[in-house]
């Protein structure tokens, strides 16, 4: 591969693994470089309004753990959320071009299956027969509520 350079990555479109989602559902696409405080500030603000009943978190590859962290923060902050989790693979194609075109080498295409996760959080009960369903814990079993407070952008916290 020392004679090739990666020219582009094409992500194949894949449908969401949930049926009957509202067309205006908020989809939080978590990326590896996403800041949790930015994601949470937006998502919690939307879910605290009465008009939003569901929110969808998606992440793939290195962003899976960050996606799960965001979902767990949401469940701690907003009590009574129901959850359905789906694990899937997204297909990508990497196109590798020869560094020296005159060398007679052909372009290479590498197909990869990248793991991904989709988590649907809802204020209303979801289909409990759906694989990956987690009901809202009863208030007696729910842990303490934590307040999410983004750090000031002006610098570190002072004692």
Characterize this entry briefly.
The protein is an alpha+beta fold. Helix content is 17%, strand content 34%. Helix 1 (36-48) links the parallel strand 2 (26-30) and strand 3 (54-60).
Give an overview in words:
Keywords: Nucleus. The chain has one domain: Translation Initiation Factor IF3 (2-Layer Sandwich). Helices cover 17% and strands 34% of the residues. The mean pLDDT is 88. The chain is α+β, with helices and mostly antiparallel strands and 159 residues long.
Describe the protein's topology.
Blueprint: E1 4-11, E2 26-30, H1 36-48, E3 54-60, H2 64-77, E4 82-98, E5 108-122, E6 133-134
Parallel strand pairs: 2-3
Antiparallel strand pairs: 1-4, 3-5, 4-5, 4-6
Task: Give short descriptive properties of this protein.
159 residues; alpha+beta; Translation Initiation Factor IF3; 2 helices; 17% helix; elongated; Ribonuclease P/MRP subunit p25 like; nucleus
- What count of helical segments does DSSP give? 2
**Count of the separate structural domains:** 1
Structural class label: alpha+beta
Q: What's the quaternary structure here?
A: single chain
Q: Count all strands and give the number.
A: 6
**CATH fold-type name:** Translation Initiation Factor IF3
Q: What percentage of amino acids are in beta strands?
A: 25-35%
Order of helices and strands: EEHEHEEE
Q: Report how far the terminal alpha carbons are from each other.
A: 53 Å
Look at the structure and name the CATH superfamily.
Alba-like domain
User: For this structure, what is the CATH class?
Assistant: Alpha Beta
Helix content: 10-25%
- Please give the radius of gyration in angstroms: 20 Å
Spans where pLDDT lies below 50 across 5 or more residues: none
> What is the overall silhouette?
elongated
Question: How can the largest sheet be summarized?
Answer: 6 strands, mixed
Mean pLDDT: 88
Under the CATH scheme, the architecture is: 2-Layer Sandwich
